[in-house]
Every structure is written in structure tokens, then in C-alpha cells.
């Protein structure tokens, strides 16, 4: 469901921000879906490195959602990275994900690396703190993780460090 025009729109949104211009109108329909925007930066001609990735599991109008997540939430406010600067634009790549067809797994290994995204939600046993985290389908595959390694990483991403 995600397409090139959606990634172009996200890039146009960021470029327009730095040029103090209006973002050109998008070339895709304004459906209602959960979405993610990922920015990667090519450093020294090497493999692109993550520069920001933020999304929502709540359905959003795609046009306003991509504009918001591409710029404000991802490029300028991903807490893991400093804000993207205009001088980085020539080195950036943008990918988008539109989430559809959620399935509840029978257990934590009921999914396929590279095919399914993972959403984990749990409550810490001692502190009763609710935790959650998400990986898009390409993350475990790109990292070369097994299912167990992906789940372990996802639990850490959710902020859980073990029983205290």
C-alpha cells in the first residue's frame, strides 16, 4: 500500500520546511491508516544509517500524518537523534510504511522474519509498568536477527531491562 509518491511527499515536506515554502500537494489518496516514516543518511558513501524513524499505530489521515511524522516528529524530534539539518538533505533517504492487516499471534514466535512487523505490549511483573515497542517487517531482516534475537531487542527497545 505504501508507494513512492508517499516518500516523495515526506521529502518535499522536509525540503519545503527548510526553504520556507508550502509543501506541494501529494500525489496519493488521503486514506486512513497507521503509518511510519524512516529517514536514513548515507555517510561517506557507505550503507545508509538510521537518522530517524517514528510512526503511529493509530490510524491517521495519510496526508496530514506523513507531513507531521516526516517533519515534526521524525526529522526534528526523534529523541534518539539531533534534528536533521538542511545540509544533510542531499544525503537523506526516506521510506514510508502504511500498516494494514493486523493479526494477533498465537505466541511470541508466531511470525516470519522479513514478512511481518512485530508489536509487543506487556506489563512489567514487579513495577506493573506498561511497556510497548514496534519493529517494522524489514528491521529484524536487515539486522540479520533470529526471531528470538528480534524479540529480545524489542523488549529492550520497550525499556525493559529485567526483573529488579
Automatic annotation (TrEMBL):
Q: Note the InterPro entries from the entry.
A: AMMECR1, AMMECR1_dom_sf, AMMECR1_domain, AMMECR1_N
PROSITE patterns hit by this protein: AMMECR1
Tell me which NCBIfam families the record gives. TIGR00296 family protein
The record's annotation in Pfam families points to: AMMECR1
Question: What is the protein's given name?
Answer: AMMECR1 domain-containing protein
The superkingdom of the source organism is Eukaryota
Q: PANTHER family recorded for this chain?
A: AMME SYNDROME CANDIDATE GENE 1 PROTEIN (PTHR13016:SF0), AMMECR1 HOMOLOG (PTHR13016)
Where in the numbering of this chain does the AMMECR1 domain appear?
Answer: 1-164
Amino acid at each position: 500500500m505504501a508507494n513512492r509518491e508517499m516518500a516523495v511527499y515526506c521529502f518535499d515536506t522536509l525540503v519545503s520546511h527548510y526553504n520556507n515554502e508550502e509543501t506541494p500537494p501529494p500525489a496519493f489518496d488521503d486514506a486512513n491508516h497507521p503509518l511510519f516514516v524512516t529517514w536514513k543518511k548515507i555517510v561517506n558513501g557507505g550503507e545508509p544509517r538510521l537518522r530517524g524513524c517514528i510512526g503511529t499505530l493509530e490510524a491517521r489521515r495519510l496526508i496530514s500524518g506523513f507531513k507531521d511524522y516526516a517533519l515534526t516528529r521524525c526529522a526534528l524530534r526523534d529523541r534518539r537523534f539531533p534534528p536533521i539539518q538542511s545540509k544533510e538533505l542531499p544525503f537523506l533517504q526516506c521510506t514510508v510504511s502504511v500498516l494494514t492487516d493486523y493479526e494477533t499471534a498465537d505466541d511470541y514466535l508466531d511470525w516470519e522474519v522479513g514478512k511481518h512487523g512485530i508489536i509487543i505490549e506487556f506489563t512489567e511483573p514487579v513495577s506493573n509498568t506498561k511497556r510497548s515497542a514496534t519493529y517494522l517487517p524489514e528491521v529484524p531482516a536487515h539486522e540479520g536477527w533470529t526471531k528470538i534475537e528480534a524479540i529480545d531487542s524489542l523488549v529492550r527497545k520497550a525499556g525493559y531491562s529485567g526483573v529488579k
